[in-house]
Amino acid sequence: MLVIFAAGGAQAADLGIKAFFGKFQGGGVAENEDSLYFGVTARDFDVDIQPADKGFSVTWTSVIRGGGVPGQPETRRKTSMRTFSPSSRPGIWEAVESKDPVNGGELCWARITGNTLTVFLMVVRKDGAYELQQYDRTIVPTGMEMVFTRLRDGDKVRSVKGRLVKVAR
What we know:
ten-stranded antiparallel beta barrel, 10 strands, globular
């Protein structure tokens, strides 16, 4: 992987979206403010980033294990997919599925900073509070590191950290 450094310092240029294309699999743990008392939950991840028209699509699946009987945790599977098109601003993509969050929709966009592709999803709840989900997917020599953060009115509700390896193009 080629990283270009600015002449005056060690700041790397942003990767292009093609650097993120492929299928990745891995796992991690989720934490929230109660994790100190109730522990963390294990998660498995699949991330598939592929070209789509002039942009790209991201499909991600989380398998969540937690609760249940010791030794036999409950398992839930959640898959999401968004397709992104270039916006009028360089380096920022907008999800074609985006709708007005004030009227029950979801606003979704993506950007690349350095070697990290970040996807943001924002909704406005019925009580007027906002929720923002942020998915940071960082290319590293071993594959991908992923950090998910969910905020509600600025307060962290949950964070998930994991590592994934590239399993296909």
